[in-house]
Amino acid sequence: MITELRVQNFKSWKDTSxxxxxxxxxxxxANSSGKTSLLQTLLMLKQTVERPPDWDGxxxxxxDNSLVNLGSxxxxxxxxxxxxxxxxxxxxKSTEKLNIRNMDSLExxxxxxxxxxxxxxxxxxxxxxxxxxxGFEVKSTGQGSYGVFVSNVQIYxxxxxxxxxxxxxxSDISQLQTSFENLFRSIGYLGPLREYPRHRYAWQGxxxxxxxxxxxxxxxxxxxxxxxxxxxxxxxPKWLQRLDLIDSYRLNPITxxxxxxxxxxxxxxxxPEVRLTDxxxxxxxxxxxxVLCYYVxxxxxxxxxxPEAHLHPKVQSELADLLIEVVKERQLQIILESxxxxxxxxxxRRIAEEQISADDTAFYFCEMNEGVSExxxxxxxxxxxxxxxxxxxxxxxxxxxxxxxxAEMKRKKASK
Length: 416
What we know:
- The protein is an alpha+beta fold.
- It contains nine helices and 20 strands.
């Protein structure tokens, strides 16, 4: 589980400072305020980790087939300034026992990356790992060579392997690098634009690591989950009913085809079956969220962009309960970006009702000020109250009501 994140000079961010990442973390704010950029730093590192072993790059900025396509180093560095360094720092709780200094318990690992670049090239890489009091720093020693330093003493030379690792023999730092890779491989992602429902879905027995960044692999995940006896078959219908969207669904083989299925749903108990394409659009948009939450292994990290997209306000509220359930019962970590007032208010209510602890949540408000993104932690007490609610957080609802009343009074006065 990620516990802290700090980003410097990435896109519109000058410095986020250290920010706690809780089991349930939400970033809120206006469009183009920098919320998505924070998530993109994690996705950039994930796709770098997941590159094939023979890939010889340093940081994967992506392409049209990647989780994120960031262009080049010059595209992501703040104000495209060549004199600035990109810096990313994060901490996480290791899920494996690390045999470093004969430690007997799991500890928090910290990673710090500093790099500069020009165009598509990255140079001047420096990174370090720290666990307990033990630290390892990797930096250039000149002429393309790198060294591993402990307490400023070089312990051996090494070849760089991406922005987080060296090609090292079995050693303390290799364990930390493996922990880093395991962390990012445990991240599942769902983007804000889910694909439209289809009349038919193809499946030939393949498995999928997730539902796809647009939900395009949702049906493959459903089949895989059923084969692996995960809780999908029980949980997905339960939540679709609770969200008051449909009563049931099934994947029906299409006659004459060996691989094609139609997604049939029953809108109410005893009602006729219809295709997914023939019911409200919100069903197809929330299904990938539900499937992903119960498909990924327990202890995974999920990054969700606008999980409430295209959903009725009531469903947005209920979605908060889904997130709380999987955080508590499946030990998932949820990191989301949202515009939903209804989702946030339901989370506040559940904190007051002690369904989730305020300590297990972290909510942030992002805004743009003179071209620089700024972030503020929303202070939530044990009763679910936000004591520093930003002005016009979700628009000016009270201002609109006051203006409406004023216009009404003016029209009534004029009519007399």
